[in-house]
UniProtKB/TrEMBL annotation:
This is Phosphoacetylglucosamine mutase. Catalyzes the conversion of GlcNAc-6-P into GlcNAc-1-P during the synthesis of uridine diphosphate/UDP-GlcNAc, which is a biosynthetic precursor of chitin and also supplies the amino sugars for N-linked oligosaccharides of glycoproteins. Pathway: Nucleotide-sugar biosynthesis; UDP-N-acetyl-alpha-D-glucosamine biosynthesis; N-acetyl-alpha-D-glucosamine 1-phosphate from alpha-D-glucosamine 6-phosphate (route I): step 2/2. It comes from Fibroporia radiculosa. The active site is at residue 66.
């Protein structure tokens, strides 16, 4: 049974703040770091229970608020194969996080253990890590209290990126099995990626150096180590690496800044020269956005959609060259944020599926393809090879040297790509491999299709929970009547498209719009935002302008 006395005395040290409702959202719990102490303690307990439920498999806990501002923090749970927590448990997490008192929490815990028939005599193992946020260390110690309250075994993976933590979980759980994923350390991760990368670019001329904007986050640390492992294979120049400067994290830099403002971070202005390419990670290094300066010093962004298009075409070419194209089919997963230009281009070539925002949704949809390429437009994504495809790759006998070379390339890609979750650095190496094989510059990569002008706007409303969507978030069903008004606005713009959804990581509603030209896209976005604001009673001082 539960060690009620121990749980009680530790829980009393982590009281839930009153009047706050916590919610396990798009990427776990996320809000101001200063109010997350009780959530962290309870997540520590929940992770241990999840481990017991799964027969002692190691569960991951990542403390990060990724692209959000520095005072925010958050926590997400990672399931044994390195994927996001099973969604049924998100509800349990929310219930446990909101029990108002220690007594109520223990009662909820007891009910939970009985309902799910969790065998408490099983062992429990949890591996945890955090990003560089100042609130991180205290939140980690709250998680440790939760792990200790359950007498579970904890492993501190220190300060590292979200993708490394996901990798570790899978590596630990597959150790010594036929599915062994790699050595269970950050070093092991770096070695796995760079060994595969070097094989893939062997014999190719070294590309020009690549600037990486690390968002002043944990990616800086991992990128530095990666650069050492890579040596001359590709020279990385990490910038925005000020992880200890207060307020610097994600501030006018990083993948979210670039994607949302469609601009180069000002700190890179003098560094990115004509013809040069660069890329930005986000605060926990699971997103990646590329860009380049053209010969006229114009900035061009290459977002998650462009990465998906580049990578999918490359893998299709390789399966053809290997003679495997009728056995291994590539499919794409996007969200409503995917640029209309990309959806048109891709769906003329490959199967494309649209799912709601959140890596967990994309990941599951991508698992249904032989090779599933999934990317959110914001640069969060990866490629999944199904177990059957991996099997085919290992048993296939190529009939020509050219087929054999292509086959080896695909096998090396399965090693290079972090298949547990979107991984900014692994994706970056993947892009570099394709550019090198195709001898593409940023400009050539960009030329596959033209992005429709688009605009993202945040609207602060009184209660974002009244917003409900359907059709993979492309239509609002609540509040009633608003979708018809959006449709009416959209009809007035040539090639217009717009949708509205509540964010799962910030207390805002997001509005996306695209149209045939920039002015129209901006106008449509602000009209829809104004409509939402007026209809749902936003804060008077914060009407979108
Ligand atoms: C998280 C999720 C992403 C999602 C993003 C924005 O990213 O992992 O899948 O696209 O939040 O979500 P929302 O629009 O619901 O706020 P990250 O990089 O912050 O973990």
């Amino acid at each position: 049974s539960l060690a009620v006395d121990r749980i009680r005395s530790l829980s009393d040290q982590h009281p839930k703040p009153s009047n706050i409702h916590f919610q396990y959202g798009t990427a776990g719990f996320r809000t101001l770091g200063s109010i997350l102490d009780s959530v962290m303690f309870r997540v520590g307990i929940l992770a241990a229970l999840r481990s017991k439920k799964l027969d002692g498999k190691t569960i991951g806990v990542m403390v990060t608020a990724s692209h959000n501002p520095e005072p925010d923090n958050g926590v997400k749970l990672v399931d044994p194969r390195g994927e996001m927590l099973e969604s049924a448990w998100e509800v349990h997490a929310t219930v446990l996080a909101n029990a108002p008192t220690t007594d109520a929490f223990i009662e909820a815990l007891d009910t939970f253990v009985r309902t799910l028939k969790i065998d408490l005599s099983k062992p429990a193992k949890v591996v945890y890590a955090r990003d560089t946020r100042p609130s991180g260390p205290a939140l980690i110690s709250a998680i440790e209290d939760g792990i200790n309250a359950m007498d579970a075994e904890g492993r501190d993976a220190g300060v590292t990126s979200t993708p490394v933590l996901h990798y570790l979980v899978r590596a630990i759980n597959t150790k010594g099995t036929k599915d062994e994923y790699g050595e269970d350390s950050e070093e092991g991760y770096l070695r796995k990626l760079t060994v595969a990368f070097k094989k893939l670019v062997a014999g190719k001329p070294a590309p020009p150096p690549l600037l990486i904007d690390c968002a002043n986050g944990v990616g800086a640390q991992v990128a530095h180590k990666l650069a050492e492992h890579l040596g001359d294979a590709v020279r990385l120049i990490p910038v925005n690496t000020a992880t200890t400067t207060p307020g610097a994290l994600n501030n006018s830099c990083g993948a979210d800044f670039v994607k949302t403002s469609q601009k180069l971070p000002p700190s890179l202005n003098s560094q990115l020269t004509a013809g040069q390419r660069g890329c930005s990670l986000d605060g926990d290094a699971d997103r990646l956005i590329y860009y380049y300066m053209d010969s006229r010093n114009q900035f061009h962004m290459l977002d998650g959609d462009k990465i998906a298009a580049l990578v999918a075409a490359f893998i299709v070419d390789l399966t053809k060259a290997a003679g495997l194209d009728d056995q291994i089919k590539v499919g794409i997963v996007q969200t409503a944020y995917a640029n209309g230009g990309s959806t048109k281009y891709l769906s003329e070539r490959l199967p494309v599926k649209c799912v709601p925002t959140g890596v967990k949704h994309l990941h599951h949809a991508a698992e249904k393809y032989d090779v599933g390429v999934y990317f959110e437009a914001n640069g969060h994504g990866t490629v999944l090879f199904s177990p059957e495809s991996l099997e085919k790759l290992s048993s296939y006998e190529p009939s020509t040297p050219a087929q054999s070379t292509a086959l080896n390339h695909i096998i090396n890609l399965t090693q290079l790509i972090n298949q547990t979750v979107g991984d900014g650095l692994s994706d970056m190496l993947l892009v570099e491999v394709v550019l090198s094989h195709k001898s593409y510059s940023g400009e050539e990569w960009d030329s596959s299709y033209v992005d429709l002008p688009n605009r993202l706007v945040k609207v602060v409303v009184a209660d974002r929970n009244i917003f409900r969507t359907e059709d993979a978030e492309r239509r609002l069903i609540s509040p009633p009547g608003i979708q018809a008004k959006i449709d009416e606005l959209v009809r007035r713009y040539e090639g217009g498209r717009s949708f509205v959804r509540p964010s799962g990581t910030e207390d805002v509603v997001r509005v996306y719009a695209e149209a045939m030209n920039r002015t129209q896209a901006d106008e449509l976005a602000f009209r829809v935002a104004g409509l939402i604001y007026d209809e749902t009673g936003g804060d008077p001082g914060r009407r979108p302008v």
